[in-house]
Specification:
Keywords: Calvin cycle, Carbohydrate metabolism, Hydrolase, Magnesium, Metal-binding. Belongs to the HAD-like hydrolase superfamily. CbbY/CbbZ/Gph/YieH family. This is Phosphoglycolate phosphatase. Specifically catalyzes the dephosphorylation of 2-phosphoglycolate. Is involved in the dissimilation of the intracellular 2-phosphoglycolate formed during the DNA repair of 3'-phosphoglycolate ends, a major class of DNA lesions induced by oxidative stress. One of its GO terms (biological process) is DNA repair. 42% of the residues lie in helices and 11% in strands. By secondary structure, the protein is α/β, with parallel strands linked by helices. It has 2 domains: 141 residues, HAD superfamily/HAD-like (Rossmann fold); 80 residues, DNA polymerase, domain 1 (Orthogonal Bundle). It has a 6-stranded parallel beta sheet with strand order 5-4-1-6-7-8. Strands 2-3 form a two-stranded antiparallel ribbon. Strand 4, helix 6 and strand 5 form a beta-alpha-beta unit. It is elongated, with a radius of gyration of 18 Å. Bound molecules: 2-phosphoglycolic acid (PGA) and magnesium ion (MG). Magnesium ion (MG) binds next to loops.
Length: 238
């Protein structure tokens, strides 16, 4: 599956769209945020899973930006609320508060993800989780779904100066794992993971069922694709 990089010493896994289907959590928290912004009795925009699937993956700020653009385009908040930049900090606070409460309630571990993690651990590979969602939310979600025990490190979008698709988070995660990027497999679902991995010099494997901004994932530059993380058993030869 990774013909250019058959030997690996560790793996880094993305979270949203790769290990856990979190679109339900995102949509619920965002709709509560939109209700807060609209105020009582006002018409409000709503978002659904499909919309979130196109916007998610570049961290909370980017997601809120997309949602506010969508809401403001509907012009339901009146002239006062039309200033996106002014609304952003309040929206972000509201969203993070709601997400913290909802975290995990409408989320599901993808079929095969647990088997894949077990296969990697059977090979004795140290594992890190590297996501663009805030570290606190990532840790709480992994714990709630019983996946935290697989990882020696969990880093979120606030852990480093820049987020994926910048290669910095991958380089830093390799440092924490004590492995060379060329021997550290990145497993993700989107262009953010693929581009960050390429730039960091990590081999990259992409799942085909995640969220890639509504674009076909197989068009991305990667070393391999899997329809389920259960296929890792074959890929890493556990
Ligand atoms: O953008 C986010 O919040 C999460 O994205 P990721 O887990 O796919 O990195
Ligand atoms: Mg992802």
């Amino acid at each position: 599956m990774c013909p250019r990089h058959p030997e690996i010493d560790a793996a880094i896994l993305d979270l949203d769209g790769t290990l856990i289907d979190t679109l339900g959590d995102f949509a619920a928290a965002l709709n509560l945020m939109l209700a807060d912004l609209a105020g009582p009795g006002m018409a409000r925009a709503r978002v659904d899973r499909a919309m979130v699937g196109r916007w998610v993956g570049k961290g909370s700020e980017h997601l809120i930006h997309c949602v506010l653009n969508h809401a403001l385009a509907l012009n339901e908040y009146g002239q006062e609320a039309m200033k996106l930049e002014a609304t952003l900090p309040h929206a972000l606070d509201s969203y993070q508060r709601h997400y913290g409460v909802i975290n995990g309630q409408y989320a599901m571990v993808f079929p095969g993800a647990r088997d894949g993690l077990r296969a990697l651990r059977r090979r004795g590979l140290p594992l890190a989780c590297l996501t663009n969602k805030p570290t606190a939310h990532a840790r709480a979600l992994l714990h709630a779904k019983g996946l935290d025990g697989f990882f020696s490190h969990v880093f979120g979008g606030d852990a480093f100066e820049r987020k994926k698709p910048d290669p910095l988070p991958l380089r830093k995660t390799c440092e924490a794992l004590g492995t060379a990027p060329a021997r550290t497999l990145m497993i993700g679902d989107s262009s953010n993971d693929a581009q960050a991995a390429r730039a960091a010099g990590c081999p990259v494997l992409l799942v085909t069922y995640g969220y890639n901004h509504g674009e076909p994932v197989r068009a991305l530059d990667a070393d391999g694709f899997v329809d389920s993380l259960a296929e890792l058993e074959r890929v890493v030869g556990a």
